[in-house]
Amino acid sequence: MQRKWLNLLLIYGSIIIISGFHYYTSTGHHYFHDIYRRLYYIPIIFAAFLYGVRGALICSVCISLIYIPHAFFWYTAHRDPAGTVEKGLEILLYNLVAIVTGTLAARGKAEKEKHRHTALNLEKSLAELKQVEGELLRAEKLSAIGQLSAGLAHEIRNPLSSIKGAAEILAADFPPQHKKHRMLLVLDREADRLNKVLSSFLSFAKPQSMQFKSGDIINRLEKVVGLIEAQANNADIKIVRQYPAKLPPINMDEEQLGQVFLNLLLNAIQSMSEGGELTIDIQQVVKDNKPMLKFYFSDTGAGIKAEDLPNLFNPFFTTKQEGTGLGLSICYRIIEQHAGKIGVESSPGEGASFSLWLPLEE
Ligand code: ADP
What's the pLDDT tens digit per position in 239-287? Predict the structure, then answer.
């Protein structure tokens, strides 16, 4: 605002000063009159660059109106001594220069704005490209790890079943209080745990084919929430539902999406070891010009460290002692197969908020 007034003061102040000199210089100093007459171009050009054609024309018309009495009617001792035609042409030129420089300046400004816009678009495209590159890298990594772990898991599974079977048979030979019986039970339990990890590996490495059909997402979500409600109650966790009873149908694989919900809810419960609040919020939004459902799963748990955030959806990333680090990478893939997106925001100590976008049927 201040700059604007300063510019106006500069333009109109200089016109008044030049005119003052013009009016009070005697006719004998014709060189000075020639100089003052041409000095008027400076405020005109300045106004053209700042305010375009309109600003420049207002300025040139003001100058013309101020100059005309001095050029033709002011008392003879101080009148501009130049010829009448010359003075008339000068007045015409003030206005022509205003139109030409105003137009050129406006064009320059438009061009500059266009370049700024292009630069912004380029910057945006570059960021998108980087994101796609990251996603591609992750997909490649997922597929390589997937193939490797599928092979390994198969190889380990059979001997593991034999170990578990043998441990069960041997345990039956000792009474329950016997030290060896207890040790064989540990063997049996650990074999079960390994088997569970292998199952996760396999479901990650060899995802089941999707069975898409139109369905009620709230119904699916409610079933999963029902599964974890008791566990949440025991852990002193309040579940807050912020969604309507009914939403438009979406094309989905119910089982797989159920797995995503279960994984996100269990992770949230595990992060709130001292109780808290788990909020599930669903909204209808438009993302990338498409109607979508946006899910928020927010908890008030331990949160996630900034340096862990980029690794969260990578396979085998875990901070839990007994974690496999496969849950979120499986979620990521399932959501991708639904043409959706998944993201997370969190800071340590302030909980985590997972967002899911799933396309609505059009
Ligand atoms: P896992 O549960 O086996 O560790 P996940 O892929 O499901 O594997 O999760 C990976 C990691 O992401 C977890 O070990 C944990 O550190 C972090 N995480 C996931 N969800 C949450 C959450 N709601 N709050 C805090 N940390 C989370």
Answer: 999 998 888 999 999 989 999 999 999 999 999 999 999 999 999 998 8
Phi, psi of 342 (to 5 degrees): -135, 140
User: Does 213-359 carry CATH code 3.30.565.10?
Assistant: yes
Query: Cβ(267) to ligand 1 under 6 A?
Result: yes
Instruction: Give CA–CA dist 223/259, Å, rounded.
Output: 11
The alpha carbon of 339 and the centre of ligand 1 are apart by a number of angstroms equal to 23
Query: From ligand 1's centre to the CA of 175, what distance in Å?
Result: 40
Query: Rounded distance, CA 119 to CA 117, Å?
Result: 5
- Pocket test of ligand 1: the residue of 269, 305, 328 to mutate, having most ligand atoms within 8 Å of its CB, is 328
Query: Which amino acid makes up residue 350?
Result: E
How far apart (Å, rounded) are the C-alpha atoms in residues 192 and 164?
Answer: 8
User: What spacing in Å lies between the alpha carbon of 114 and ligand 1's midpoint?
Assistant: 45
Instruction: State whether the beta carbon of 256 lies less than 6 angstroms from ligand 1.
Output: no
In this structure, what are the phi and psi dihedrals at residue 166, rounded to the nearest 5 degrees? -65, -40
Q: Mind listing the pLDDT tens digit for each residue in 296-347?
A: 999 999 999 999 998 999 888 999 987 888 899 889 989 999 999 999 999 8
